[in-house]
Design brief:
By secondary structure, this protein is of the alpha+beta class. It is built from 23 helices and 24 strands. The protein has 4 domains: 261 residues, Histidine kinase-like ATPase, C-terminal domain (Heat Shock Protein 90), CATH 3.30.565.10; 121 residues, Ribosomal Protein S5, domain 2; 98 residues, 3-Layer(aba) Sandwich (Rossmann fold), CATH 3.40.50; 122 residues, Up-down Bundle (Four Helix Bundle (Hemerythrin (Met), subunit A)). The strands form 4 sheets. A 10-stranded mixed β-sheet has the order 1-2-7-6-5-8-4-3-9-10, with helices on one face. Strand 20 and strand 21 form a beta hairpin. The structure holds adenosine-5'-diphosphate (ADP) and magnesium ion.
Length: 676
């Protein structure tokens, strides 16, 4: 993926920083304090150890980022406080999934207890609600790491995006997944009693969510984790079994494990307890799909598209995939990881490097549940498994087909998708030749001729009669690209030019070369033969003849500029501007060259061609002066000024800024009337 990675780097400066962060994990708990432990009795949700042992307790500070996030989460993140329960249940269910998978290869981990479940225990006297699971649990280091820091790659970049504007920040934080901290919306204190599967020591973590937490050993802890939420004044509704039932029904019914309500010693399963994707589509409401998407994708937005299918045939599997409606913040992380979870016969296997989807579909969230793969398949085996390769091919086709339907049936909705994920999807044009046709059909562009998006088919249909190529211009910024002087002649002749602003465009266009026999051609490179194309709705009119001494002018320009340019020539590319720069036919596109230089992939600049607009007043007057006494020197100075000006417009560095400033000042001075 060498070149691909380079393609990405253009957009991945953020991603690069993500990685940096990962290597330098911020220090945690910079001031451990050993306190004498007070004798306290803990409410343990009925299924954990009863008494703490007397041992030292350590007080630590949350990582600074966590403190800040906690504050936002606790006070303003969710409009519905009840969502904290969904988040705790979601974590509990993930923890059970993880142990179930680990126990496939190491059955001893399960300690004979394989009826995974989540137990909710409200305690009216103590005013606590406990969410307990018998999943994988956490040891001391994991409690500190998972609940006290955010060591996830991307934290620093993520935090720097926080604006202080609560509403904007909320959706960002939502994407980041800070589910656990949402308990502080209703809690004045949160305790976690945990024991990791396969280990003997239990631990108690506790915090009031105000900058510090404590951690200490805890005897008799059951395997898994129990989150004890000490409810704040006024939050007693979360002790009411009927209320808890309703919340679970609304947000967590899709969870495949039993969620048990323990009330007055009686136990009752309050969810359907079958994995959502195993139910018939007709029995699943849009709300249930959405809640499942939130759970599986750690997402907050509505799914833009849901794909729930059961494949029966040589391969049997179910997919429930979602296209998000907002951009995940780590979309351009250089690792380009896909996020879909693999299950085998309802058992969660992994969500890492599954090879179930190509990297250019990494925006998808959801699950694939295979009936055929062996349960004990290792992650390494997945990557060379032919069944996985077949599923990947089928899933890719299915996703692209559905996107195609949206593109034709709901172009406005599709435009939103394209704005979010178009740049990612285009990576496929470069690296997946099998899907190239399908992907070309899905690709959309901004252009000089319309406000909305245009497809290649639409472009080709409305080409000018004499037009032979698909014209493109590349740059970093749509508004700037649109105003490039090189586009003037195209506009005048009604020739549409595609505006390309994603770094990946520089890679896929040359790789593909043409569409429906029409070659792609850069509007800023080579001769473009605009002369052949007549403007629409106009008689081909007599063009004013070029100024008679134009050839002489060009000769003086060439002499003055010498090696600074490859050539100087007259051009049809311009209408309003006097000059512009273009790259020679065989050279790199100018924008691409800058991109490569920015990323230190190139340290030379090819010489440009300076094109003159023969019908511009300035060029006409300069041409008229050719042959007059002293004209050559003056034209030479103008040549340099115009070259530097064209460089500025192109966004290039001036090789000699002081010389430019001196020439400009002289010229301005000459233009002023002399004092009397
Ligand atoms: P996320 O679920 O998006 O990772 P959370 O804030 O909800 O973020 O949880 C942070 C981490 O704490 C989880 O990734 C997990 O490692 C750990 N964790 C939370 N709850 C549990 C639990 N019940 N059992 C085991 N680990 C847990
Ligand atoms: Mg979570």
């Amino acid at each position: 993926m060498g070149e691909m990675a380079r393609a990405n780097r253009g957009e991945a400066s953020l991603g690069a920083r993500f990685r940096g962060q990962h290597h330098h994990k911020p220090a945690v708990g910079n001031r451990p304090v050993i306190l004498r432990r007070r004798a306290l009795l803990y409410i343990c949700g009925g299924n954990l150890g009863q008494r703490p042992q007397t041992m030292s307790q350590e007080t630590r500070s949350f990582q600074a980022e966590v403190s800040r996030l906690l504050d936002i989460v606790a006070h303003s993140l969710y409009s519905e406080k009840e969502i904290f329960l969904r988040e705790l249940i979601s974590n509990a269910s993930d923890a059970c999934d993880r142990l179930r998978y680990a126990a496939l290869t190491e059955p001893a981990l399960a300690e004979g207890e394989t009826d995974y479940r989540v137990v909710l225990t409200p305690d009216k006297q103590a005013r606590t609600l406990t969410v307990a699971d018998n999943g994988v649990g956490m040891n001391r280091d994991e409690l500190i790491e998972n609940l006290g820091t955010i060591a996830r790659s991307g934290t620093a970049a993520f935090m720097s995006q926080l604006s202080g504007d609560t509403r904007k920040d909320m959706s960002l934080i939502g994407q980041f997944g800070v589910g656990f901290y949402s308990a502080f919306m209703v809690a004045e204190k949160v305790e976690v009693l945990a024991r990791k599967a396969g280990e003997t020591e239990g631990w108690r973590w506790a915090s009031d969510g105000k900058g510090e937490f404590t951690i200490e050993p805890f005897e008799n802890a059951r395997r898994g984790a129990a989150i004890i939420v000490h409810l704040r004044e006024g939050e007693d509704e979360y002790l009411d079994p009927a209320r808890l039932r309703r919340i679970v029904h609304t947000y967590s019914d899709h969870i495949g494990l039993p969620i048990v309500l323990k009330d007055d010693g009686k136990e009752e399963t309050i969810n359907t307890a079958s994995a959502l994707w195993t139910r018939p589509r007709s029995e699943i409401t849009p709300e249930q799909y959405k809640e499942f998407y939130h759970h599986v994708g750690h997402s907050f937005d509505d799914p833009w598209l849901s794909l729930h299918n059961k494949a029966e045939g040589v391969l049997e599997y179910t997919n429930l995939l979602f296209v998000p409606s907002t951009k995940p913040f780590d979309l351009f992380d250089p690792a380009r990881k896909t996020r879909v979870k693999l299950y085998v016969r309802r058992v969660f296997i992994t969500d890492e490097d599954t090879d179930l989807l190509p990297a250019y579909l990494r925006f998808l969230r959801g699950i694939v549940d295979s009936e055929d793969l062996p349960l004990n398949i290792s992650r390494e085996m997945l990557q060379s498994n032919p069944m996985v390769a077949r599923m990947r091919q089928q899933l890719t086709r299915r996703v692209l087909t559905e996107l195609g339907k949206k593109a034709t049936e709901a172009p406005e909705e599709y435009a939103k998708f394209w704005d979010n994920f178009g740049p990612v999807l285009k990576e496929g044009l470069y690296e997946d030749s099998e899907q190239r046709e399908a992907l070309l059909g899905l690709t959309r562009f901004r252009s000089t001729a319309r406000d909305g998006l245009v497809s290649l088919d639409e472009y080709v249909e409305t080409m000018r009669p004499e037009q032979e190529a698909i014209f493109t211009i590349t740059g970093d910024n749509l508004d700037v690209v649109k105003r490039s002087p090189q586009l003037e002649g195209f506009r005048a002749r009604g020739v549409e030019v595609l505006l390309l602003t994603d770094p990946i465009d520089e890679f896929w266009i040359p790789a593909i070369g043409k569409y429906k026999e029409k070659p792609f051609k850069s509007a800023t490179r080579g001769g473009v033969d605009l002369d052949k194309i007549t403007p629409p709705e106009e008689q081909p009119q007599e063009k004013p003849a070029p100024p008679p001494k134009l050839a002489g002018l060009i000769a003086i320009f060439k002499l003055a500029l010498g090696d600074a340019v490859k050539d100087v020539r007259s051009s049809d590319r311009l209408t309003d501007s006097a000059v512009c720069l273009v790259a020679d036919e065989g050279d790199l596109d100018m924008h691409f060259e800058r991109l490569l230089k920015q990323h230190r992939q190139l340290d030379t600049t090819a010489k440009r061609i300076l094109e003159l607009n023969p019908r511009h007043k300035l060029i006409e007057r300069l041409a008229a002066s050719v042959g007059e006494a002293g004209a050559s020197d003056q034209i030479g100075e103008f040549a340099w000024l115009l070259l530097d000006q064209a460089r500025i417009v192109e966004g290039e560095q001036l090789p000699d800024p002081p010389a430019f400033a001196r020439r400009l000042a002289q010229l301005l001075e000459r233009g002023l009337p002399h004092p009397a």
